[in-house]
Amino acid sequence: MTVLENLNSQRKQLKMRLKKVIILSAVLMWGIVKGQDEKKVLFSVDQNPVYNAEFIRVFEKNKDIVVEDDRKDFDDYFELFVDFKLKLKQARDLELDTLSSYTSDLSKYREQLIQPYLQNPEATEELVQEAYQRTIEEVNASHILVMLKPDASPTDTLKAYQKISTARSQIVNGASFDSIANVYSEDPSVKMNNGNLGYFSAFSMVYSFENAAYKTEVGEVSIPFRTQYGYHILKVNEKRQSQGEVQVAHIMVKNDSTVLLQSKDKIYEIYKKLEQGGDFATIAKEHSDDLSSAQKGGVLPKFGTGRMIKSFEDVAFGLENEGDFSTPFESDYGWHILKLLKKYPVASYEELYPKLQSKVKNGTRSSYVEQSLAQKIAKDYKVVTFKAKLQLYPNIDGFEQNKDTLLLIQEMSYSGDDFYSFAKDFKDRIKEDVFEEFSNKMIIEYYKAHLDETNKEFALTYQEYKDGLLLFELLQKEVWERSEKDTLGLEHYFEQNRTKYVWKKRAELSIASCTQIEKANLVHKLLLEGKNTDTIKAMVNEGATIHVLFSKGKLEEGSSKLPDGYAFKLGVSEIFEEEEHNFTIIDVDVIIEPQWKDLKETRGEVMNDYQNYLEAEWVKNLRQTYKVKVNQKNYKQLKKRFTSQ
């Protein structure tokens, strides 16, 4: 809600439009004038100054509604602005800006207004582009994990780091990764895969692990890095172009099948039947032990690499043509036959952009966007972190009720207890990582709290919202609630202005609408014969096919529902064709001459007029209550500036 929108809710729209003359000299001069206008007082309300610049800002913002060459309307606009300032003065005198409804709404508006200033499109765009590059390239990597709890003691952390470093040193010095993985890795799956994770791409792993995989060259071993699971090293075995996604149907026979034939014998019987032309979906429904997919003819959701067990995935992506089915193969779950339904190559950047952007904003990468924003903001502030104090306690719980300063932003200090309040729900994560997020969050919160001090554009927009909401509270109190409750006043106003509320000539009538001239002629004939509407509909409409619609009621002459130029006349009218295939017939029963309206018939219109009356009387009272002093010299200069363009 802008200032002018508040003003316009009180008066009819102004009628002028100023000429837009864009001349270089005028633009250059405007920069000088603007600075001077910040200091010039245009008028005051009880000695509270209102400067030229504020009026100019509002006028310039809304001058497109001002009609050109009518200088009187500049005066009207100015008076409207003075009225606005008078109302704000009274609202503050009445302390309406302390009401909980006002402060609550203002807080919500402020949060909405701030959001565009918190965008970090450059960082988001970089992460989206990075995610796409990692979507079109897959990595095959093996890893070694030394488990470590996020809140581990410094002693345990050092021990884990030394263990992972020893493992890396042995690999670098010639030992095979597989053998070292089986000795050192604490990932339970190592016994089955020697640490090999298969192929994966963007969003398949935690972001720190993904980063290490994509930033390590093929054949190389990464330096140790930490995630919430502990310390890792990884070796990149291969990188390849992404195979996209694939959708298959499958038939599975469990190894523990209770059928008479053994699992392998049964799967090969099924395979032979498929080779003989058997329907895959029907056989899956009847014989597959995967009951959830069997009901769908064996169909599985589409998947990419890294989503299924390796043997299953290899066969699925190895099928060449849609409709091909594999020979039987065995996995840890039993025996399978796959049928290729469709291959989905990686979509273009433009097609994937919305999905990737959503994942970046809502996933773990969002913390990197926030971190980048905080780093950008922090350049304008004095930020000091006391990381030595962070080592006072091995875990987050130790900081509860701790009053030591851990973070300083400008003059604002944040204690250990502040950190605990933020971090208590993240005890399963690394303390230092959570503290970094805490620091970033507090920098952004400080920026938000002081944005109107550092950003003039935001300050001006926020002031408009403050004034608009405050005026809303005042209008509700002085006009809207009063008009709703003051029924006697409303009735008195209606009686005093009764001549304004008059019905034009009206008629009680029926309107018949048809889309075919033949049906319209038939309806016209039946109306002239005096048939009622129900009879006519029964004779003209053909079952579910509607040829005529009737509407009945009381309308004023000139109503938009009537044909253009139609004047009331008793009886059946001619057939009107206002648009192609739109035929109308009017049947007037009673004509009612103009008459005064009852209050209940026009209450909405009277209420609106009564509110305008109350507001006008209120403004008169404000003019008497508060002293308005106009700087005539500045006013005349402004008027000349804007009405001579």
In words, what does this structure look like?
With 645 residues, the protein is of the alpha+beta class. It folds into 5 domains: 3-94, no CATH class; 95-135 and 364-454, no CATH class; 137-241, Chitinase A, domain 3; 245-344, Chitinase A, domain 3, CATH 3.10.50.40; 502-596, Chitinase A, domain 3 (Roll). The protein is 49% helix and 19% strand. Strands 15, 16, 17, 18 and 19 form a 5-stranded antiparallel sheet that branches. Strands 4-3-6-5 form a 4-stranded antiparallel sheet. A 4-stranded antiparallel sheet has the order 8-7-10-9. It is flat.
Proportion of residues in helical segments: 40-55%
Q: Round the Cα radius of gyration to an integer and report it.
A: 39 Å
Q: Terminal Cα separation, in Å?
A: 28 Å
User: What is the arithmetic mean of pLDDT?
Assistant: 88
User: Counting H and I runs of at least 4 residues, what is the number of helices?
Assistant: 26
The description of the largest β-sheet is: 5 strands, antiparallel
From the spread of the alpha carbons, the general shape counts as flat
What class do helices, strands and sheet pairing give?
alpha+beta
- The proportion of residues in beta strands is 15-25%
- Provide the number of structural domains: 5
Overall strand count? 21
Low-confidence spans: pLDDT under 50, at least 5 residues? 1-33, 67-71
The gist of it:
With 645 residues, this protein is α+β, with helices and mostly antiparallel strands. Strands 15, 16, 17, 18 and 19 form a five-stranded antiparallel β-sheet that branches.
